[in-house]
């Protein structure tokens, strides 16, 4: 059994600012507050209650209703042009103080849970492009355009918040194939493909090293610490109760450089088979839970310029640095050296 729409509502997902923004947008397009509240399955008060986190199903259902007013497939673009930075849960504001555009990408990927608990942001680099993909398990034909909104908003962050021109090479969007391509092309000032199978913004590789005009390393370090604490708190609240003991065991073992499945099960007072079944029941794998904690710790260690890659591999209990490099590349979409090079 995986985590689906029926059970995700018992957790927390998106800041209510997102619901408030969508509500205001829906009202501007002729919908009533009652229509929007009914669509989201929320009391009217929850539609404008700041600071709370609400089920992502509410956002998905709200967006589907607003999509009914879309005539030319440009709904994500229209909202992206006017939405406040808070729609990205404070990450846009923090991005102002990053050193480079590459740091901003890492900021968003590492803190995606602050935007929505199951949002998937995948960042990969090649010699020709740097790619950031937006995805979500609830994504269907209509909700996919909500992730297209994320791509459009990130373009605006690069242009208006970071003030880095010429960074975007193109975009691919899951919006109607008959959408107004010219409007999207004008907004991105780059080639845009609609009717695509994914939501992705493509950047020039050399743009990753471009400096952010308001860069402040000390302030950005504080922001990273704050975001990490926020992530930890949200993960504690979001993880299914049945998994909290197992995940706590993994985190505790990591303090002793123990990243083994047997060790996690033993600390959680479970047999290995029971631990694996418990993770699978909630739509995870035991090894996947361990890898997630391990890669988070790897990123923290890579922020220390005095630690060599082989020393970090040893601290994370990899057999050698090559094994660490392969694992990090697979899980983070870039090599440890590439990740570190954008930190300093």
Considering the chains and any ligands shown, give keywords for the structure.
434 Repressor (Amino-terminal Domain); disordered N terminus; 17 helices; 53% helix; 344 residues
Structural features, described:
This protein has 344 residues and is of the alpha+beta class. The protein folds into three domains: 5-69, 434 Repressor (Amino-terminal Domain); 85-209, no CATH class; 239-341, Arc Repressor Mutant, subunit A (Orthogonal Bundle). Helix content is 53%, strand content 8%. The protein has 17 helices and seven strands. It has helices spanning 5-8, 16-28, 33-40, 56-67, 75-82, 91-95, 101-110, 144-161, 181-188, 217-238, 241-254, 261-267, 272-281, 286-302, 309-315, 321-332, 336-341, and strands at residues 14-15, 53-54, 120-125, 130-135, 168-172, 191-193, 199-203. The strands form two sheets. The chain has a five-stranded mixed beta sheet. A hairpin with a 4-residue loop joins β3 (120-125) and β4 (130-135). α3 (33-40) packs across α4 (56-67), α12 packs across α13 (272-281) and α15 (309-315) crosses α16 (321-332). The radius of gyration is 21 Å and the shape is globular.
